[in-house]
Amino acid sequence: MKGLPRSLSRGNAQAQTVSKIKVAVNHTVTVSATGAAIGFGTVVLGGLPEGQLKMIAAACKLDFSGSGADANLSDTWNGDFGIGTTPADDATISVGDVDVIASTALGPAVAEVAPTANAINGTDAVFDNTAADLELNLNVLVDAADIVDDESVDLTVTGVVEFTFVTMLDD
Questions:
Q1: Chain centroid offset of residue 91 CA
Q2: Reduced to 3 states, what is the DSSP secondary structure of residue 12?
């Protein structure tokens, strides 16, 4: 019998060229406000594989909720989130803070539970992870009017993030 077995036995085995990682999310993000500013927080979802990573697409489906009884968080809070290779270090999320999933609006929440957030990103990007030190960071903002000044709140985030990429020039 010719066909498939014969075809499979020819040539060198090929390495998988397209990969997808699926990250289950079940994290707590502490969001802190400084003065009357927007509250921000970040949590690491996981590391990325070593090499030059050419992002093909990323998608996520996430649920954000407060405790349901946090006096420092409005029951109808609004905010934004993004996923990137750098953690948020101020009350804005931009550049590397959102280079995997762009800034996406959340809310308004009901009883501190935001509507399910679905986000997709098909923007071409190449990440130099030859040092194997890049991480997926979930960065969250809560509107200034919805978090008490100089306080922190814990948001529970559950769901999934998928990242599809090609690895190039890995040693």
A1: 17
A2: coil
40 neighbors 97 (Cβ within 8 angstroms): no
Chain length of the chain? 171
CB contact set of 81 (below 8 Å; sequence gap of 6+): 62, 64, 93, 101, 103, 104, 106, 117, 138, 139, 140, 141
Residues 19/49, Cβ–Cβ less than 8 Å: yes
Whether the CB-CB separation of 90 and 18 falls below 8 Å is answered with no
Residue 123's pLDDT is what? 80
Q: Domains of the chain, with CATH numbers?
A: 28-168 (2.60.120)
Q: One-letter amino acid identity for 159?
A: G
Summarize pLDDT for 1-26 with one digit per residue, the tens.
555 554 444 444 455 578 999 999 99
Q: How far is Cα 66 from Cα 50, in angstroms, rounded to an integer?
A: 35
**pTM for the complete prediction?**
0.88
